[in-house]
Amino acid sequence: MWTHAPWQGRFLPRSLPPRERLRSYATWCNAVEGNTTFYATPARSTVESWAQQTDPDFRFVVKLPKPITHERRLGGVDEELRAFLEAVEPLGPRAHALWVQLPGSFGPNDLGALAGFLRGLPRTHAYAVEVRHRAFFEDARAERLLERVLAGAGAEWVPFDTTVLFRSPPTSDAERDAWTKKPRVPRRSSALTDRPIVRYLGRDDTERTVEGWRPWVDTVVAWLREGRSPTVFVHTPDNAEALPLARRFHDEVRARVPEVEPLADPVPAEPPTLF
């Protein structure tokens, strides 16, 4: 996301080479979703550059590659998994969680594969699983079975909250595109571990996005007061304002839990001028 074109020149300096943009992004937010790893396992040198551009307490939630989760559906993936784990090793403590995003067709009958896969993972990482099959949200038995599998491995369940997006018809091209691609599932706000992760998708209208995240502010405040350390990712269909929105969410939470560390001051997108 730190190379997102609409941010260049607005929030991030336009003149930065791609390998320096993460450093600038990290002054806006203290966590990032590693979506690019879904499409290809990165070179170790690339991951080393990510580590060099961020502080040790910066959080990467890194998605497992598509061949592992979608093509092989977690079976017979030892070689691919080994290559991925070796590639992300330079992140060290920055690897907040390895993210297992499963396809919408991965349902309750597949939980045996998930349980076996999670059992075989090294304990050197934390893991978070995102499911999209509606049965896990609408069938109490399927929900309990999934929670049991995740709890047995100490893994978190990542909710992807799209309820605000689907609350009313789309009003922009980006929203119409999101309607065809994003999962339409109920909101879930229960944490299984001390490091819950939330993915929230709002609208391209800022105020509708802010209004829609009110329940998450309440939830995150409660988690913090319980001693948990949540990570929240704020999206909109076009993501044009995602950076200031993420900071606004953080400010709303911090207003209620003042002991939360403030975010750093962002690096200016353009150098200051005398006139």
Brief overview, please?
By secondary structure, this protein is α/β, with parallel strands linked by helices.
Structure, described:
- By secondary structure, the chain is of the alpha/beta class.
- The protein folds into two domains: about 35-160, Alpha-Beta Barrel (TIM Barrel), CATH 3.20.20.410; about 160-275, no CATH class.
- The chain is built from eleven helices and eight strands.
- It has a five-stranded parallel β-sheet with strand order 1-2-3-4-5, covered by helices on one side. It has a three-stranded parallel β-sheet with strand order 6-7-8.
- The longest helix is centred in the C-terminal third of the chain and has 15 residues, at about 240-255.
- It is globular and about 55 Å long.
- It holds the Pfam family DUF72.
- InterPro entries: DUF72, UPF0759_sf.
Key terms:
12% strand; 8 strands; 11 helices; 2 domains; globular; 275 residues; TIM Barrel; alpha/beta
> Which word captures the global form?
globular
Q: Please count the beta strands (DSSP E, at least 2 residues each).
A: 8
Distance between the termini: 32 Å
- What's the story with the biggest beta sheet? 5 strands, parallel
Kindly report the name of the CATH homologous superfamily of the largest domain: Protein of unknown function UPF0759
Q: What would you report as the Rg, rounded to the nearest angstrom?
A: 19 Å
What level of helicity do the residues show?
25-40%
Question: Which CATH architecture of the largest domain would you pick?
Answer: Alpha-Beta Barrel
Strand content: 5-15%
CATH class of the largest domain: Alpha Beta
**Structural class given helices, strands, pairing?**
alpha/beta
Strand order of the largest sheet: 1-2-3-4-5
